[in-house]
Amino acid sequence: MKFTQVFKKVPEGYVGFVEELPGANTQGATLEETRANLLEAIELVMEANRVLAEEEIGNDEVYRETMLLAAA
Questions:
Q1: pLDDT of residue 2
Q2: What are the distances in angstroms from CA 30 to CA 13, 62, 66?
Q3: What's the pLDDT score for residue 8?
């Protein structure tokens, strides 16, 4: 699966986000810093989503399976 990083030049440096992943956004003084910050933002969004899902599940019986997405 492909994700699209979008970077916009602003007076303070750059802002960046991932089109396919709401909430994954960041900023940085340089494009390189913004790219690195965006990777961290992606990890934090995915971690937060997992915590929210676990809270929603609570003590319910569920089945978990690993899902791999083929590279597009």
A1: 84
A2: 6, 44, 36
A3: 98
DSSP annotation string for 3-62: --EEEEEETTEEEEEETTSTT-EEEESSHHHHHHHHHHHHHHHHHHHHHHHHHHHTT---
Segments in the chain below pLDDT 70: 71-72
Token pair in block for residue 69: 């997405």
Alpha-carbon gap, residue 8 to 40, rounded angstroms: 18
State pLDDT tens for residues 21-38: 999 999 999 999 999 999
- Please name the amino acid found at residue 56: E
pTM of the model: 0.79
The length of the chain is 72
Beta bridge partners of 26: 16
